[in-house]
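Hi! If you just cloned this repository, the fastest way to understand the data is to look at a raw example. We've pasted two of them here, unedited. The first protein comes first, obviously.
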Amino acid sequence: MPKPEIKQFQSEVKQLLHLMIHSLYSNKEIFLRELISNASDAADKLRFQALSNDKLYENNTSLKIQIKINKTDKTIIISDNGIGMSYHEVIENLGTIAKSGTKEFIESIKNNQNKDNTQLIGQFGVGFYSAFIVSDEVIVKTRAAGLNINKGVLWCSQGEGEYSISYCEKKTRGTHITLKIRDNASEFLDTWRIKNIISKYSDHISLPIELEVYDDKTKKNVWEQINKAQAIWLRNKTEISDNEYKEFYKQLTYDSTDPMYWSHNHVEGKQEYISLLYIPTNVPWDIRNRDYKNGLKLYVQRVFIMEDAEQLLPKYLRFVRGLIDSNDLPLNISREILQNNNIIRNMKILLTKKVLNMLLKITKIDNLYNTFWKKFGLVLKEGPAEDINNKDTIIKLLRFASTNNNNDEQIVSLQDYINRMVTGQKKIYFLTADNYITAKSSPHLEFFIKKGIEVLLLTDHIDEWMMSYITEFMGKPLQSISKKDESLNELIDQDNTKDINQIEKEFEPFLKKIQKLLGNKVKKVCLTNRLVHTPAIVTTDVNEMSTQMAKLFAAAGQSTPEIKYNFELNPKHDLIKKIMKIIDDNIFNKLINLLLDEAILAEKGTLENPNQFINNINYFLSLSNL
């Protein structure tokens, strides 16, 4: 037998093993779930590769998983006859972790020592290492399908920073894992315990899971199948319990929490396929990344084809998990073919509508949709720009914070808003800002609060971009209150407007003087009736880029045209009345520039020349009698 080669684990693996052995004790049984899931994946990969090379079956097409317990030796042996691994693949899969995000996984466990981290294990693709939670030593004997029997590989490790690897002889394809069970994990050497775990996590694995048991009649050890081995999605949904759906979801996604909602459908007609779609409860750590892969598995005629078939759903629904089993697609379909396949295009249209209808149903369940929105609302907000065909439905699903509630919870729908519109109100008003506090304290709100008109407060970074794709809802235009809006005049009390012409004539020389002073710093100087407590604000014209949109472009590294603001003054404010009477040009100039800087600071949160602003403040402080 060749002398084994001793290799060091990758540094991330060392950290991971330490955490597995010393930190994850809350739910030890998940080691079996993970190893069985890996074995099932190996069988799926063999089925798929054998479509183009049936010699990989090596005259044995009966795929299965077998578990053998030896109480005397304190070992559990888990075997499969799936695709197996070559020497290089064993090093790649068991000695290193190439998957992106491993460091985040390790940090997640470190930062959540007292929480259940079992769902993270499967999500990050490091399930094999959970074997060390219950094992003093793990021995893997494997051979890739199609290789000679002397190209088997023997891998051994005690989880202490290194492993040994060597070639060996293995007559059958697949993988054979021996776990030397720790003394504090001896419960897993009992047959009833193993059966219980299989029933809980792996009952729906679509190939037989056999456990070696003692038969009292024959006085021999025999193999007993302990799972149903029928894909749950092939069964009639009236025969499937809620608990079975939940457990299948956990086995499918490696998530230890129950799903929020699910839908199981058999579609017949021009296309025939089965869909089983889940809305998760847990939020994947990288869900906000547009590169996050969709969680749908694709089967064709019950044969597993690929993981994460992103062509089946649009990106804004990437939080959906589940599977599709099609009878119409060819078994040899690839990702490249999927991109240009009419069946897939039509299926995507139907699946998208199905998911949106699922979400509409959730809106009718008390508090459930609020929970969904807190977790996945930011992703769904990408929908109006991405999916114009379903935009009306997506808009119904959007939720916002508003002045109707005294908190930043996004629970207001546009239909809720319309139901509360005041008499004479023709538009849906909204305000975008960097955060809730800035939005809530904005001077733009003064008129609306006075009139009892609700304003939506949008503070997510995506909101300004999203609202550029939503122009109306139920015949009501949407209007940003940071933009100039002449239609507000219709909502202003008549007694406040009857003398407006006289007021404008009175202020005309004052406004011209300011316009001349500021020059091209502003687009226009005018009066406004929209303010109550604030002396001045800046606004943009309806068709011009808003402040928040400019910030969004800047954050993306894109250049934007300079924003020219309208400088709007409150003629009823005492400060404005006082400035009108100032004769000293130096003081007048400093006050107007200070007032403009205040308005721009309230609008943008920043100034191009903060030092000049501070100098002007200090100048007037020095004139005071403090």
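Ok, and the second one:
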Amino acid sequence: MKLALAHHDSLLRRCRYRNHRVLVISFLLVITTAVADDSSGGRWDLLQRSIGVSAMHMQLVHTDHVIIFDRTDFGQSNLSLPAGKCRDDPADLVLTTDCTAHSVEYSVAGNSFRPLTILTDSWCSSGIVAPDGSLIQTGGFNDGERAVRTFRPCGGESDCDWSENSKGLAVRRWYATNQILPDGRAIIVGGRREFNYEFYPKSNPSDLTTFPLAFLKKTRDLEENNLYPFVHLNIDGNLFIFANNRSILLDYNKNLIVREYPAMPGGAPRNYPSSGSSVLLPLKPSPTEAEVLVCGGAPIGSYTQAKVKNNFLEALSTCGRIKITDESPTWAMETMPVPRVMGDMILLPTGGDVLIINGAAAGTAGWEFGKNPVFTPVVYRPDGPTGERFKLETGTTIPRLYHSSAVLLRDGRVLVGGSNPHIYYNFSNVEFPTELSLEAFSPEYLSAANSASRPAITPSAAGTTELNYGKQFTLQFNVETLADSVSVTMAAPAFSTHSFSMNQRLLILETGKAAAVAGGGYEISAVAPASTVLAPSGYYMVFIVNGGIPSEGIWVHIQ
């Protein structure tokens, strides 16, 4: 397998994609099949052949529904709105009257979906989940560039829908990034040709204040490879912001850059449209350090080469790790088994694994600028031995390229959808048709071979458990085989779009030792995070992890 991958890398370096595209794609398909046959982990299940809407953006909410949407100026989608709910928008660039949906609410338990009505153009927008569980969704294009959209989860009731304020932001936010803050507000960073940030909600609706951030202007290149910057809330309350190949630590309260980090080695851009991905690695109990991982992307000039010369450069195969809390931090570089651009990175509930999924091996983000889909996910184990941290998983058969997304579900699966590299919906006479399906990837921990080690939290996961900062709580669970190591993890549901999961966060909680209880089963005590800096107020999924095998999660609310 290693020999095949090495030959694959050599082949891609030697050939030009424009002239050898069919050969390379065929070879990749052979590799994908070999990986699927050779891998012991993971399973793919097709959930819906079509939800009618391409999943450009996805957000799981605490009712176990996933809010999915794309953009309003694709033209008609493949899902009709209910009678009488047509969207009338004189500003729309394609259809001023549109009776099809561009958003859906997907029920995980029911594997069903219903149309939602989104009015302003949400193309390439951003979002957070507020402390009360509402999805706050911001920006977009055209008449949606300053919009704030709110979806308040209500369990799939038919009268639950989007509400919108078309002038909720101070400036246009297209390709911006959102991060929830310790005080419950969202900070909205950047956007195309916006070298600043602002906050939402605003104390006064007429407040049009923005705060300059020259770093975003300095990292802009000819291809604007600093869009959708990677933003992570550090354990000191400041924001780590990564754009292009550079990063800073921002005190947003004082509008002061408190640290500049060394540039990521190699000089290649990692943000849209070069579209690598990034996570804040899981935080240990009472953390004193925090570490960021950045993987994939595209070489300098990839966008221009694809757009102007129809030449699709090989994607980046490198990852970089940096301890953002160190006094003199440096990047540690590693190499993935396959190159990847437009991949999504998901923190798995084990507390030690990062899933890298979706994307392409060549090209870049943009209209039909990605080639050679990477069908095989990779699991990265941060604490594994150097050189042995990557593991190839079972591959899918559906290309997930530009405008695809992925989110972690409470049952431990990863929901995958989207892929539309075309200006409109296009299903024929194109290499990669618009994809309207939903799949679930089940990591190896969900396999039948691990069923005896999979804990089940009792009573059932219905309802929400309230937690208090720094306070102990107890979980009871059943398991057939109790491992020597039992831990508790806590994951924030993330907003996924354009290869970055905003607000993604996973904490490993301080725990006692699992003990048997009268009448059967076990219990374990855990301590909730100490502050809103470590875990901003809101809804989280809590898992018991038994020897590396996580339970189905339960929803908790902390404030």
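That's it. A detail worth noticing about the second one: The domain at 448-558 is CATH 2.60.40.10 (Immunoglobulin-like).
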